[in-house]
Design goal:
The protein has 17 helices and 12 strands. The protein has helices at 3-11, 18-30, 35-48, 52-63, 91-101, 120-124, 136-146, 159-171, 177-190, 211-227, 249-260, 266-282, 289-301, 304-315, 321-324, 351-361, 402-415, and strands at 79-83, 106-110, 148-152, 195-202, 231-238, 246-247, 334-339, 344-349, 377-380, 387-388, 393-399, 416-419.
């Protein structure tokens, strides 16, 4: 078997066999197949696509390129929840403790923020001491003993995906549905997930800007999951405006903890309950979504979700005092409330503009390895469809640099659009 023959076959729009895909991924991982051939393969896939079977084979081959965790001896069912990323999306930090408090063990490996979407690990690190570099043995031990883990991805999981993504990033082959889907799903499978809930974001602040694109990606990932023997469900959720109010690491942590106390923005609360209901139903702890939602709500009202989060923070070396006294979180030097320039109805709060403005403040990275300022960000007070009066607070800026604050004010003002006519609110979920 030769790499060039596999590239030619995909160039000519023919279906690859499992053996051919295994050969190519294995050769690329161990260095026998050079970057230029892997780049040509990625471009052929971008231009000609893959069948669901090919995509499933590619996903499994990448998952098997490194260690594949077997959690069957640790827990009865391993459930993972993945979000395709967005602005103000701190869902995992609230949902995972709610679900674990209901008796469903959750072991989640998350990522860092890159671009305009924030990363779960960066948010968690705003709690001093919180470790995101657990070893595989530590991951398994904590999952068994505490029933909840939230850490970074182990370097020995799906190494082919890391190598392939680095190439795609510099060869114009990132926006390929089979490559995006296999990249997400190979990490879930390598991480030992037997049931997977996918929260696919759609809109101005998402990688998939249209509902059709989001649906195509969601259906492809569900197909991969089923063909790989994993129970998989995908939700299509709105990311035209930020989720909740807080955008920025410490601010989002405070909002996520507030939710575990039963407080916080209504849209974020409803979003988390809906996702938690799906996780509990898929994880066989609830018979249906209605029971799952009831269980998740009870974990908030009886305090067990907050206690579970406290347990998680302690288990991973974090200072649990931050869970009970949120004034301890890093605070920005400058806080400015920006008032609405006019009366009317909010017709848009452009999520991408807000996300990019938070990165410019220092809440995210322009490139990998950049330091993060945990204190900075925004509190967005109004949602699409809300009525606002001139002079009423519109949003709040938390900054550590006066010049950056001035730029952020203009950017986030430009993200808001107004209408004299009534505007309907945006749905939380589409399908």
């Amino acid at each position: 078997m030769r790499a060039v023959d596999i590239i030619i076959k995909k160039r000519d729009r023919k279906e690859l066999t499992s053996q051919e895909i295994d050969f190519f991924v294995h050769g690329f991982t161990n260095g026998d197949i050079p970057d230029y051939q892997a780049s040509a393969f990625a471009m052929a896939v971008l231009l000609n696509g893959m069948t669901p079977f090919e995509t499933a084979d590619l996903t499994l081959a990448m998952a098997r390129s490194g260690q594949v965790l077997d959690l069957s001896k640790v827990v009865d069912i391993a459930v993972d929840k993945h979000s395709s990323g967005g602005v103000g999306d701190k869902t995992s930090i609230s949902v995972m403790p709610m679900v674990a408090a209901c008796g469903l063990p959750v072991g989640k490996m998350s990522g860092r923020g890159l671009g305009f979407s924030g990363g779960t690990l960066d948010k968690l690190e705003s709690i001093p001491g919180y470790r995101v570099d657990l070893t595989t043995d530590e991951f398994k031990k904590q999952l068994k003993e505490k029933g909840i883990v939230l850490t970074g991805q182990s370097l020995d999981l799906a190494p082919a995906d890391g190598k392939m993504y680095a190439l795609r990033d510099v060869t114009g082959t990132v926006p390929s549905m089979p490559l995006i889907a296999s990249s997400i799903m190979c990490k879930k499978i390598a991480g030992g997930a037997q049931a997977i809930v996918l929260d696919v974001k759609v809109g101005l602040g998402a990688f998939m800007e249209t509902l059709d694109q989001g649906r195509e990606l969601a259906e492809l990932m569900v197909d991969i999951g089923r063909l790989a023997g994993r129970k998989t469900v995908a939700l299509l959720s709105d990311m035209n405006q930020p989720l909740g109010s807080a955008v920025g690491n410490a601010l989002e942590m405070i909002e996520a903890i507030e939710l575990l106390r039963g407080r916080g923005p209504k849209d974020y609360y409803e979003h988390c309950l809906h996702v938690a209901a799906h996780v509990l139903a898929l994880g066989q702890r609830a018979k249906d979504l209605e029971e799952g939602r009831t269980m998740a709500e009870k974990s908030i009202t009886d305090g067990s979700a907050l206690e579970t989060f406290r347990t998680l923070v302690k288990a991973q070396g974090g200072d649990a005092a931050y869970v009970d006294d949120m004034s301890k979180f890093a605070r920005a030097k400058y806080v400015e409330v920006v008032n609405s320039p006019r009366s009317g109805f909010i017709s848009q709060v452009h999520a991408r503009i807000v996300g990019e403005a938070s990165v410019a403040l220092g809440a995210g990275r322009a490139k990998k390895g950049d330091p993060i300022d945990h204190a900075v960000g925004f509190l967005i007070h109004k949602k699409v469809g809300d009525k606002v009066e001139a002079g009423e607070p519109l949003f709040e800026i938390h900054a550590n640099d006066q010049a950056k604050l001035t730029e952020a004010r203009q950017a986030v003002l430009s993200a808001h659009a107004f209408s004299d006519e009534f505007v309907s609110s945006l749905p939380l979920f589409y399908e």
